């Protein structure tokens, strides 16, 4: 059986809708160590320099200790819109959902939630990230090659907006395997809609409004560390959308050879091929060639004429670059177990004799029970892009990291960190779900709906009011009429 499950064949050219090409890179020539490989990748990626607002996100899983269920799912949300509305919503069991809106084409998918959940809602329409009471996590990330073309005249399947896919999964499944087994039956058509974006015209120095299609793919993970990825892409023979599922059953998993723990914004087939360059014959990861001198700082290489050329350049946050970097760091992060080598070392200098190293006493202690959380946060922060960084020629992959989430599966906590705030906030899931009977929400950043309106700003709340810091369970408020947000555009 193959190392991951593929339900449909993948035949997608790397075409930027006739506008710009993303050329696959040759990873075989100079991959003697991780730094050179990343450098080559950046040089070989010819990014389409088009003024798109992209969701350049990264998701990764860090298994700190499988035995104690110290498992973390982390993700970043990269977006060029500095005013993206963001709220946390909590849903009880039995909530009625209708995937209604502009693009339902008359056949909206409807369902009733089987599990309680907490999600991040953006633009008041998309469940972009979240977790349910069973510990299943869903993350929606940008995918330029996503395709949702189908036979519009067909009435055999209901329609589900892509903005509702994560919520549908959280509402209906307890584990990754359950979701894979059901969704591979392709029970609905995915549809999408437009998002209005204001962008500065550098020539006129005015902001113009553009409509962009919402194109995303889905990653899910659970409390066992299981993972799957769902990509809707165009099937070339039929020119219609096909679902591809990447999933590795438990019986085929080998410790240290995980390949589905990371997702960014590219076709996973290609990115998994990149990882093969760092695996030996036994499929174990070998990030640096032991026969080569390892260097993080070799920024130059030579062309065929022996001329120096730049090997690295600043905006190295393309989808494949982040995929390899996140795979490297999540794979290389130490486990937290009972081995002495993974404990915390200390030095006793009270009896030292100057000049004699043997006089220094050492001992080890266990790490803090929250050490895994600290490492998980450091992992996803390392994948982030500074706020309002200046793009080069409107490079679409240089979007700022707007927020991050960290799921502590073992302690059942959901952390949210807004890049424009001072402190992360978190939800104690057991406490919130214990008596959750109505729809609740917590607004974190809400821009004014029209000129002159007030806004909600997490940075202002934390800095000036000393509010919304740490655990925020008590700050969730009941939603009027127990209504959930729409997943698509709603006409007035």
Automatic annotation (TrEMBL):
<comment type="similarity">
    <text>Belongs to the peptidase C59 family.</text>
</comment>
<keyword id="KW-0378">Hydrolase</keyword>
<protein>
    <submittedName>
        <fullName>Linear amide C-N hydrolase</fullName>
    </submittedName>
</protein>
<dbReference type="InterPro" id="IPR029132">
    <property type="entry name" value="CBAH/NAAA_C"/>
</dbReference>
<dbReference type="Pfam" id="PF02275">
    <property type="entry name" value="CBAH"/>
</dbReference>
<dbReference type="GO" id="GO:0016787">
    <property type="term" value="F:hydrolase activity"/>
</dbReference>
<dbReference type="InterPro" id="IPR052193">
    <property type="entry name" value="Peptidase_C59"/>
</dbReference>
<feature type="domain" description="Choloylglycine hydrolase/NAAA C-terminal">
    <location>
        <begin position="57"/>
        <end position="342"/>
    </location>
</feature>
<dbReference type="InterPro" id="IPR029055">
    <property type="entry name" value="Ntn_hydrolases_N"/>
</dbReference>
